[in-house]
Amino acid sequence: MAQRISGTPGTLGESAPQDLPATAADTSADSPWPVSLLARKMKDYIDRMSTVWVEGQIIEMSHRAGASYLTLHDTTEDISLPVQIWRNVRDRLDAPLTEGSRVVVQAKANYWLAKGRLTMQAYDVRAVGLGELLARLEQLKRMLAAEGLFDPAHKKPLPFLPARIGLITGHDSDAMKDVIRNATLRWPAVEFEVRNAATQGTNAVPQVMSALQDLDAHPDVDVIVIARGGGSMEDLLPFSNEALVRAVHAATTPVVSAIGHEADRPLLDEVADLRASTPTDAAKRIVPDVAEEQMGILQARASLNGALDRFLTAETRALADVRNRPALAQPQTMLTGRVQETATLRARAWQAQSGLVARAGAEVTHLRTQVRSLSPLNTLARGYAVVQTESGDAVRSTDQVAPGDQVSVRLADGRLAARVLETAPDPHGPRAHGSDPAPADTTAAEPTTAGGTHDD
Fold it and tell me: Sheet holding 274-275: strands in order across?
């Protein structure tokens, strides 16, 4: 290692600052920068910075000699910055600065080599007035509304009977007592998960957001109430913070805003799933009244009993009307009428069938008479006979038989067996005129059957 300790000129007889590393990345344990070199480089860098307008809230302020020293705190995060204001700048202000004031400061970073302290030197300070705050809030409101954060379609319905309520409010505040007391009076079984947070000032936004995230992740919390008992417009500014509004919109648990300020509504009222005018109103709207619910049950039961009684009365009357109808009062009437109708139909059917049978019998008799009148037997009954050869052929001519032939004579009441004795053709018969032969009964035959008659 070299003889020098810090590398500063004059150390151990060395005066060669050119041996130091040119950049911070080139430094090492064997070749470090002296404090003065680092401080000067930091000052050179900071001096090249431009002035900047910065907004914050004064949380501490003191006056020494010709300067004032104040601590400027961020309005949304727990970050502070020291600011130095010379008397000539402070004297130009229209109103004196006080702790809690919200200001806009034109400042430039200044690094003091001797003590290694970084401060912001103010060249101009302007108080943020109420009108300007309202204008900014209105602009923020329009922007968030355009993004849809206030859309009613995104609002989640509150449970009818939450078992556990998450409550974000100040420590031992009247708002906390109002919510718990009124909710317990309305529904004694309700339980609370309380998270205390600052409800005004610079710490309000981060603490309320932390409590909101904690309760939103709690599995037993059904609804979250953010409560504060009113206040001035400046006191309620944390509840119009953009980060808090977005956190409420992103919460999965329904959120109720109970700020208790009617004149100027913070943006939390717009994004919350339900806005209550006061913490007491929030308690009344998140849990039902047990007495009212019991009364409602009694009224519903009475209404149900009345409706049931009316229904049964109407149905009983209708049933009585049905039972008094002739069909049910004297059901045999229906059978009697059907029996008589059936007997009438049977008589008609019998009469119709008898007429058909009679007409058919008469027709059969008529046909029988016709058949009998056309039957050969009817001819035989008038004294005619039919002569047949042994082969069964009817004898129509004397040429068909010869004397001695055996023939059969058919009469009306029987048959005779006969023998031909002789044949004698009729000279005046049909043969003489060229017509058919004479009938067979002109042939002389000798009967041979005992008890028969002889046909000449």
Answer: 191-196, 164-169, 223-227, 255-258, 274-275
Reported pTM: 0.51
Whether residue 205 sits in one domain with residue 171? yes
Q: In this structure, are 88 and 174 located in the same domain?
A: no
Name the packing angle between helices 242-250 and 204-216 (round to 10°): 10
Q: Does 47 reside within a domain?
A: yes
Greatest Cα pair distance, the chain, in angstroms, is: 204
> 284 and 234 share a domain?
yes
Q: How far apart are CA 98 and CA 451, in angstroms?
A: 176
> How many domains is the chain built from?
4
Could you tell me which of 160, 221, 170 has the C-alpha nearest to residue 200? 170
Same domain for 53 and 38: yes
Q: What is the per-residue pLDDT for 132?
A: 66
Task: Report d(CA 53, CA 70) in Å as an integer.
Answer: 16
Give the model's pLDDT for residue 168: 95
List C-alpha distances in Å: 186 to 119, 179, 286, 289. 56, 11, 10, 4
Could you say which DSSP state residue 19 is in?
G
- Integer CA distances (angstroms), 107 to 49, 81, 438, in order: 11, 11, 171
Contact of 398 with 425, CB cutoff 8 Å:
yes
Neighbours of 21 (CB within 10 A): 14
CA distance 443 to 445: 6
Rounded CA separation 311/149 (Å):
51
Q: Are residues 198 and 157 in the same domain?
A: yes
| Contact status, residue 397 vs residue 438, Cβ threshold 8 Å | yes
**Which pair of tokens denotes residue 434?**
């060229």
Question: Domain for residue 20, yes or no?
Answer: no
Cα 71 from Cα 384, distance rounded (Å): 167
pLDDT averaged over 10-residue windows placed end to end, the chain, 456 residues: 37 50 88 89 89 86 85 80 87 78 86 85 79 75 91 92 93 90 92 91 87 94 91 79 92 92 78 92 91 91 95 93 80 79 91 92 90 79 85 87 89 88 77 48 46 39
Quick one: pLDDT at residue 300?
94
Structure tokens at 327: 């069909």
Give me the pLDDT at residue 262, please. 62
Are both 201 and 140 inside the same structural domain?
yes
Domain around 315: 290-319
Q: Same structural domain for residues 74 and 154? A: no
Amino acid (1-letter code) at residue 119 = T
